[in-house]
Amino acid sequence: MQNVTTAIIPIAGLGTRFLPATKAIPKEFFPILDKPALQLVIEEAISSEIKRILLVISPLKGDPTLYFNPDSELEKQLTLKNQLHLLSSVHAIRSSAKIETVVQTKPAGLGHAILTAAPLLKKEEPFAVLLPDDLYLADPPCLRQLLDLSAKRKLPAIALLEVPPQEVSKYGIAQVNQLNKRTYRIERLVEKPKISEAPSHFALPGRYVVTHEIFRFLRKVRPGRGGEIQFTDALNEYAKEVPLLGYLIHGRRFDVGDICGYIEANVAYALIRPETGEQLRHNLRALLADE
Ligand code: UTP
After folding, report:
1. What is the CATH number of the domain that holds 18?
2. Which domain holds residue 76?
3. How far apart are the CA of 183 and the centre of ligand 1, in A?
4. What element of type H or E holds 235?
């Protein structure tokens, strides 16, 4: 497998779980403390040595790349006020990767969104997919862990997460064969199965490294659950022909596409930040004691 330097980040979904807020602000721009979730995911990609990011965007949600552009008036004001720490936080948004966009004309599913980015990839180029609904506090970064496995075994690899049985119907779920402590061979995948039909408790938490061949399966797959083109369905067909690895990521994952997961992520990030950790710990104890 060639070296992976391109990542697709699809952000063209409707974000219905956060309505009505997502009428005004796309959920990828909801802040985790003071940074949009999208920025954190782009930072993960960059620190995993991704050089080119393809954002799949919606025509209904405005141009997200404006956020990454320099804002000379803001920078002038921060300089005048000598607010240098804020100035450097604004500078840090300028990405060291090239960010390009492609429009998904209708929200026809994650698989459809990924297929929309196909013309922007080079012939035969393998690529990564990161979903900004899933955030990882992990060292090395989650995507780096997958890329290292994929480079070592010369095979595509997807992240796995063990979830409680009652949660399997929220995820793509994998039937697996264990190869070693954290590495599995993916045998079969099913999107949002009922508890009684789930082949395991191994869910797909939004990080994938795949070869270009996946597009052959994405073009063939028919609308599945919810009438959408499901990436999981295409991966299931792909895994029948291409050896596909699953990896239990070291680190803590947050589902920020869900209200509780979003709050939990904010709390976890605030607890590890020196300026907020101690104060928040104190406030949370008081809040829980009053319950
Ligand atoms: P979700 O399944 O979480 O859908 O998409 P959603 O529409 O964003 O959110 P809810 O469930 O309605 O609240 C997973 C990822 O795939 C993108 C989303 O933007 C999100 O990053 N996506 C989904 C697309 O880009 N296009 C689609 O058609 C569907």
Report:
1. 3.90.550.10
2. 6-257
3. 27
4. helix 231-241
